[in-house]
Amino acid sequence: MAQTVVSLRGVSKRYTRGRQTIEVLHNLDLDIDKGDFLALMGPSGSGKTTLLNLIGGLDRPSAGELRVGDARLDQMSSAQLTRWRAQHVGFVFQFYNLLPVLSAERNVELPLLLTPLSAAERMKRVRIALQIVGLADRGKHKPAELSGGQAQRVAIARAIVADPTLLVCDEPTGDLDRKTADEVLGLLQLLNREHGKTIVMVTHDPKAAEFATHTLHLDKGRLVEQAAHA
């Protein structure tokens, strides 16, 4: 029986601008199982990134219940969410978010600085993560010395180095050409299939969604379609 990792029940998200209230997500129910690779699709303004931010603990719902594993994210304070994210979520962004003054190794090490691991153990994990993404020989290079695809692989290594419950990816191939994008998506697929990572990815690209196990379509903050891939 599949193990549910992410569970949303009646989740809504509203923002207030002056006297106006804008509801971005409306009463969503959703389960994501362990080992799923979910692609979130929909037009601009449909609520994809808002949903991703809620699942990743970057924001809290205005209403409803949101569980990731044993954690009730909707009941956590900002400080609790920060600690929880550091332990349980790896983030991959469109523009890599690497620190330009640090080498690939030091960028990948950053999430481990919040742990009690020794420097030697941190570097051991960093090198394993870089090996998984195919960049074992690029650890001393700074971001400016890497191609876009290599930089995104470093970002993925940073996301997996602490062995998180979830990988959360926001348009991870949006800044890459097709060939490089497919290589990065193939790496995410490998992490999902061979390393058992649960992945939630926002994308505008139907070809990117084909690498996922499921596609979820949002429109105006509502779930309009969910499809499993063969």
CATH class: Alpha Beta
> Roughly what is the average pLDDT, rounded to an integer?
88
**Low-pLDDT residue spans:** none
Please tally the β strands and state the result: 10
Number of spatially distinct domains: 1
What's the CATH H-level superfamily name? P-loop containing nucleotide triphosphate hydrolases
> Numbering strands along the chain, what is their spatial order in the largest sheet?
6-7-8-3-9-10
Strand content: 25-35%
The coarse overall form would be globular
Distance between the termini: 19 Å
Count every helix, treating DSSP H or I runs of 4 or more residues as helices: 7
Encode the helix/strand succession as letters. EEEHEEHEHHHEHEHEE
Radius of gyration: 18 Å
Helicity, in percent?
25-40%
CATH fold node name: Rossmann fold
GO molecular function, one term: ATP hydrolysis activity
Family: Belongs to the ABC transporter superfamily. Macrolide exporter (TC 3.A.1.122) family.
Keywords: ATP-binding, Nucleotide-binding, Transport
Protein name: Putative ABC transport system ATP-binding protein
Your description of this structure?
It contains seven helices and ten strands. It has 230 residues and is of the alpha/beta class. A hairpin with a 2-residue loop joins strand 4 (63-68) and strand 5. The chain is globular, with a radius of gyration of 18 Å. Helix 5 runs parallel beside helix 6. Residues 6-230 form the ABC transporter domain. Belongs to the ABC transporter superfamily. Macrolide exporter (TC 3.A.1.122) family. This is Putative ABC transport system ATP-binding protein.
